[in-house]
Amino acid sequence: MNALTELTVQDRSIVWRLEERMRAAKFATVLDLHEKLKTIDEDCVAYPSLARMISQPPARLNLRTLVSLTIALDCSITDILDVGPANTAERS
Questions:
Q1: Are the C-beta atoms of residues 45 and 56 closer than 8 Å to each other?
Q2: What is the pLDDT of residues 61-90, one digit of tens each?
Q3: In sequence order, which ranges of the chain are alpha helices (DSSP H)?
Q4: Which CATH class name applies to 5-80?
Q5: Burial track 17-56 (b if 16+ CB lie within 10 A, e otherwise)
Q6: CA 34, CA 49: separation in Å to the nearest integer?
Q7: Confidence label for 14 from pLDDT (cuts 50, 70 and 90)
Q8: Domain limits of the chain?
Q9: CA separation for the pair 11, 88 (Å, rounded)
Q10: Cβ-contact 77, 25 below 8 angstroms
Q11: Would you state the torsion angle of the CA atoms of residues 13, 82, 49, 60, taken in this order, to the nearest 10 degrees?
Q12: Residue among 58, 51, 47, 50 nearest 16 (CA)
């Protein structure tokens, strides 16, 4: 698994760093992180969904889940997800 996953939406790069933040916060497994999230908000995310989003950004992300992740990982949203500026060089 890559710590950083980058994709592009409408000429903007999106960098997903959930796995990197998980390691920085000393969570050894997805199960450990999921258990912590359940103490923050019992209904924030199902384990299979969390496991998929560790290495690949989800197509949709619930705000409750995102906020719970920032609390569990003791970080800001931009530590997990970063959206770059529009790439104007590729536009015609």
A1: no
A2: 999 999 999 999 999 999 999 887 766 555
A3: 18-24, 30-40, 47-55, 63-73, 77-80
A4: mainly alpha
A5: bbbbbbeebebeebeebbebbeeeeeebbeeeebeebbee
A6: 10
A7: confident
A8: 5-80
A9: 8
A10: no
A11: -60
A12: 58
